[in-house]
Design a protein that fits this description.
two-stranded parallel ribbon, hydrolase, hydrolase activity, about 170 residues, Hydrolase
């Protein structure tokens, strides 16, 4: 089995179609619906996104060394800070390109094929089961932006998720 990849499943019928990859998808991935439900639950329970650099940051010491020290975060009463991160952000060909020609196709496993800027906004490219290339919210970054458009108070000082690319 391939190592875990953490991108969101857009089409569960294609991801869980009986091929050898479905076990890993089931163990390590979340669907778009699940991710949106998690965001809503965090919001309802009083969590607020904070930037990792607000939690702690480097401070130059008198001896020239650097030490990380706790930052100051001032949230309204009843709010709790949370750092959201997405690890291993990469749109692997085995997830999107069923015929190995280097292009995403309708035989892929139902994941976005790339993250890009379109019309000044971060969005995803996704090839659906009919082979149509669509652009929209098919992974964490644009989905979180959509959520923050509706709930700007879910972000402290404009915080977003931290992503780690591969």
């Amino acid at each position: 089995m391939k190592a875990a990849r953490v991108v969101l499943i857009a089409d569960t019928a294609r991801a869980f179609d009986g091929d050898p990859e479905q076990g890993g998808y089931n163990q390590f991935m979340a669907t778009i619906k699940e991710f949106n439900a998690v965001l809503q639950s965090l919001y309802e329970r009083g969590f607020v996104l904070v930037d990792i650099h607000d939690v702690a940051g480097p401070q130059q010491q008198a001896d020239g060394s650097t030490k990380y020290v706790a930052g100051d975060i001032y949230l309204p009463a009843g709010k709790k800070p949370i750092v959201l991160s997405q690890d291993d952000v990469c749109y692997y060909e085995y997830m999107t390109d069923s015929d190995s020609d280097g292009k995403p196709d309708k035989g892929g496993d139902g994941f976005a094929s790339r993250l890009l800027v379109k019309d000044g906004k971060l969005t995803c490219e996704y090839v659906d089961a009919d082979g149509q290339t669509l652009y929209g919210s098919y992974d964490l970054v644009p989905l979180l932006d959509d959520f923050l458009d509706q709930h700007p108070d879910f972000s402290y000082r404009g915080a977003r998720a931290t992503i780690a690319v591969t």
